[in-house]
Amino acid sequence: MTGNVCVVVFIPPEFVMKGANMSFAVSIGSLLRTETQDDTTHRDDDICVVGVFGKSNMQSAAAKESLINILADKHVFSLFSEADDGGAPESQIQAFYNQESRVLYLLLSSVCDSRQLLRACQSLSAGIVHSDAHDFWKGLERQQCLHLLYMFSVCHVLLLVHPNQTFDVSYDRLFRALDALRQKVLPLIRAAIKDCPVSKEWKVNCRPCPPRLLFVFHMNGSLKVSGNGSDSAGNPDKAKKHSPRRRLQHALEDQIYRIFRKSRVLTNQSSNCLFTVPANQAFVYVIPTADEDPVGVLLGQLRSNCTLYEQDSTMTVSGPRRYQQMRRSTRQVSFSGDSGTMLMGSQLLDCSLKEFLWQHIDLVLTKKGFDDSVGRNPQPSHFELPSYSKWVQVASRLHQVLISNTEEELAELATKVQGQLKVLEGFLEADTKFSENRCQKALPLAHSAYQSNLPHNYTTTVHKNQLAQALRVYSQHARGVAFQRYALQLHEDCYKFWSNGHQLCEERSLTDQHCVHKFHLLPQSGEKPDMDHNPPIMNHNSRGRSTSSCNCGKKQAPRDDPFDIKAANYDFYQILEEKCCEKLERIEFPVFQPSTPDPAPATNQDQCHPCEASGSGDAERQKEPSTAQSHTPGEPSLSLALSLGHSTDSLGAYEEGDGTEAQVQQKRPSLVDRQPSTVEYLPGMMHSGCPKGLLPKFSSWSLVKLGPAKSYNCHTGLEQPSFLPGSSFLLPWDIVIRSRSEEDAGLMDSLDGGTSSWPAPNKTLMGKRGSTGGLGRNRRRDDMARVFVGFEYEDSRGRRFISSGPDKIVKVLGPGGTKDPATKVLNADMPLYIPSPSQGRGLKPHFAQLLRLFVVVPDAPLEVTLNPQVQPGPPPCPLFHPEQTDIMLPPDSFWVLRFPYSYSTDHGPCYPPKENQPLNNYKVLRGILKATTAIPPP
After folding, report:
1. Going by DSSP bridges, is the β-strand pair 731-741/600-601 parallel, antiparallel, or unpaired?
2. Whose CB has fewer CB within 10 Å in the chain, the N or C terminal residue?
3. Per-residue pLDDT at 935
4. Where is the stretch described as Disordered (predicted)?
5. What does the alpha-carbon distance between residue 4 and residue 174 come to, in Å, rounded to a whole number?
6. What is the DSSP letter of 62?
């Protein structure tokens, strides 16, 4: 079939039998455990240990494993990479002992190999941060260094495999790090192997000999050369002494030797070096590019193996003679693409990989050793060819100390070895070192940015702003994996600087101003302030002062910016009350009356929604009987009906006014369903969201009587201090009491027996027929009652004025009082804060706050009900009200209601508005006054 290629390979029976006897590689740990327990026949063999390490690229065939297959003439490792079995990405050493050649191969697989690198990438989580990923990779590199140190301590020959023909300069840094680590852990290794049956030189130097390091490079496909080795630009008939591959090997040898000598990795005395390179032998081998035909490669391998097997079957020899025979056979037949070139003219023959390595192994097996010292007085280095059993004992001890860490008796040494790994940081973590140096230089710049333009004491907000600025400066200069660690250190340093005597008190006053003192403690009851205490004990102070009036408004005094709701709404006014309005009549609001010596504030109470609380009160008021005529500015239809005289037929309702009104008064105070608690008190102020049955320990409101109604003169206004000129006049509110006809009026006049019973001469009676300008016979006239109302505002400097509307100030220039009616202020929501008419020189605007309500109730059959509700913030701010609602003001009285200076709930204070906040969210709801006529029967 086209497109499918079927290859039939014939395998001779002899090869099948040989494959049945193939050996396999095991881990170094398994090898050491097995050899120390079993009694094998090769325990007395003198062995040469060859270590293989390096890097591999992303190719199907494993480079290092295939080399051991070539060197051992056995299929120890698979030619192609097996599927990933999900193993761990840690470094591991695999061992294979070739008993025929007495060579033990150690193969190191690390993160430098493509298979281990893939496993490491799969083990990383998706959301890992950059610093954690860096620590993960550096941990794998440190583990690789320990395995390399182990191999440099137990091997005679080391083979460094590289996937291309370019020397990796990073090996220079790696070998310097391993040499420094070896010098640090050398005393620990000596203590571990001091009881092993090896020579004194081995115990002192902790290795059988200074290992010889060989380099194997794979030639890149772009560097293919012709078989005869002639240059394209030169004469093809002219023979070259060396092939291009050998010339490349010589160039790499010179480069590697020069680099290691410059960095002091190689010195004249080989016994002091981590490894040596031969002076008169080749130590670099370049493997030519393999053929791209995989089927041809397999057939060539099969042919070469069959040929070698036939030769081995005819004559079986061992030892050096077998090595010479193997060299002759490899010259005749190519093996795995590693063929020697034919002799052309005077051109030398390139050796195979096995010949390249065996010339060094032969020096070990013949006990000649390596003489790699150079200089004027070269000193011979020590050398020992151990038996298999001795090598296993030493390798097992070193494995416990450097890698496995499982033996209890060597656990202390293993822990000390792990502590010496810091030596590797300066060599392996160059990027970390650079990052740390860069971040350390950025820290002083960030500290300067944090401390620039700082006051001596500052708040958390300033600290966070300065810290953000410091982090911006730090991020402009800091780089690398240490960025996060030094950023945390910057956080800690700035916080220590702030908390070490620079932290400002975080308490904010009820007017939203910070305390100017540094962090301090409040004095307890009966405790005096102590400035020497750490932290100091003192009261809060924002250095803000204002001028306020007393409850009645007749006396003013300066006050400090309050930090406590009791100091704001109660203590200050109690001090002024002793000097001014202590003897005035007042209506006391109910407060908490404890029945236990240690009452507690209420906690975990179910808070009702403000809308529900206000709605229940409205619904209850709607259920009240309508027998008495109600005059509410919010209900203009009632006043309009009375003024037109449509309520004359309802005079009978006034007769029942007393009884029904008494019933209403019994229902109005019952806004709470149960008696107030005498065990728990309300920690804040009374508002619509408070639980029922709780009262505060003090009242934030005040209602005092200034005198009878006549104590207010409408022509002169309020005679109190600090009012703006012409703004101390109350607004009139005319209320219709009843309407009566002219005849009823005459009858009442005649019954009074006054002087107006008879008309005066030359004077016509009002209402007579034919009179001009008088009322008609059937016309009525109204009996009116005038109530005076005034909403007083006061700013922080004590300037006061009465408002005639939400955005208007009373202004009376002459005698006679104001002409503006009070219906405008009663029918609208009055703002709690308005801009003060007397602004200062600063840019910050001053606000005047609604603090008092003046009400003058005349001596008339009129009942005025007071029900203030204040919303001191935007929704969902609750509605604040006194502890008693629907307060009845008796006739012939002059009352003043003092509003709270500050408003606060259990969750904190309601701060005054800022410059950019709308003032319409801070208001006193309409319906604060309600007038009811209650005329007794005639």
Report:
1. unpaired
2. N
3. 61
4. 227-246, 526-558, 592-675, 747-778
5. 49
6. -
**What does the radius of gyration of the chain's CA atoms come to, in whole angstroms?**
53
| pLDDT at position 489 | 95
Q: What is the 3-state secondary structure (H, E, C) of 378-440?
A: CCCCCCCCCEHHHHHHHHHHHHHHHHHCCCCCCHHHHHHHHHHHHHHHHHHCHHHHHHHHHHH
Helix (H) or strand (E) holding 743: helix 742-752
> CA torsion, points 816, 817, 823, 826, in degrees to nearest 10?
-160
Separation CA 40–CA 35 (nearest Å): 7
Hey, where are the domains in the chain? Answer: 48-79+88-223+243-293+389-404, 424-499, 703-738+781-933
Residues 6+ apart with CB under 8 A from 616: 671
Q: What's the length of the chain?
A: 938
* pLDDT at residue number 938: 52
Q: DSSP letter string over 643-696?
A: HHTTTGGGHHHHHTHHHHHHHHHHHTTTTSSSPPPSSEEBSS--BTTSPTT--B
CA 589 to chain centre: 49
Closest by CA to 270, choosing from 369, 339, 178, 187, is: 369
pLDDT for res 631: 55
Q: Going by C-beta distance under 8 Å and a sequence separation of 6 or more, which residues neighbour residue 307?
A: 329, 333
Contact 400, 150 (CB under 8 A): no
From the DSSP assignment, how many helices (H) and strands (E) are in the chain?
A: 25, 29
Under a CB-based contact definition with an 8 Å cutoff, are residues 484 and 478 in contact?
no
Phi and psi at residue 64, to the nearest 5°: -70, -40
Residues with Cβ within 8 Å of 593's Cβ and at least 6 positions away in sequence, in order, are 676, 678, 695
Could you give the strand order of the β-sheet that contains 830-831, starting from the edge strand earlier in sequence?
A: 830-831, 922-924, 870-872
Residue 473 has a pLDDT of: 96
Residue 372 has a pLDDT of 78
Fold of 48-79+88-223+243-293+389-404: Rossmann fold (3.40.50)
Copy the structure tokens of residue 371: 């003489």
d(CA 758, CA 736): 28
Helix, strand or coil for residue 737? strand
* Interatomic CA distance for residues 147 and 153, integer angstroms: 10
SS3 of residue 898 by DSSP = strand
Q: How far apart are CA 722 and CA 423, in angstroms?
A: 81
